[in-house]
Amino acid sequence: MSEINVDAFRMINDIGKEYTSLNPIAIFIAEYMVFFLALAMLVYWFTRTNKNRMMVLCAMISFLAAELLAEVVGRLHSNNQPFAELPHVNKLIEKAVNNSFPSDHTMLFFSICVTFWFFRRGWSFLWVVLAVLVGISRIWVGVHYPADVLVGALISIVSAYIVYRVVPELGIVRRLLVLYDKGERFILSPFAKSKDSKSKDF
């Protein structure tokens, strides 16, 4: 294990020992922010605009592509979580011991959040900030080294960029989204008619 990697881990992880009042925030970001991300994807999807649906689809493909790349990278190098390899780690969440290189959590957030930024720009850079905070929080709570996070982020950024450039240009993807939209409208049309009839009664 690189000394720089361990030293960087200690620098971040030890903050939780000194500022214990911040640990609940780190735990929340590391463990539960994923539910906020899932909710955001659902909201974007059901706004039912073509751009948002293409964005969500690309985000999911980016993550899958990042996971495939990570499988290859994980075979070239592996390490267990810091709490399993180092003494006196400030471990704040429970996690099974396995290969933590690269960080799956980091890849999930970076592949999705960077895709959001590619599509929307402007204030969407806050999604990237969220991904960075999640990566740092995984080190803070003791389950990843900085190298796990950095490599996961790099794989995801590359994956997100390639998918952003390629997938929206594929005619088959656009046609599938159109077919899905038609199917959704067909399924939801009885509910829409029912709502319209009720509104007319008033």
From TrEMBL:
Question: GO CC annotation: what is one?
Answer: plasma membrane
Q: Which Gene Ontology MF annotations are present?
A: undecaprenyl-diphosphatase activity
One Pfam match: PAP2
Keyword annotations for this protein, in alphabetical order, are: Membrane, Transmembrane, Transmembrane helix
Location of the Phosphatidic acid phosphatase type 2/haloperoxidase domain: 59-164
- Protein name (database record): Undecaprenyl-diphosphatase
Under SMART domains, the record lists:
acidPPc
Give the transmembrane ranges: 25-47, 125-143, 149-167
Q: Which CDD domains match?
A: PAP2_BcrC_like
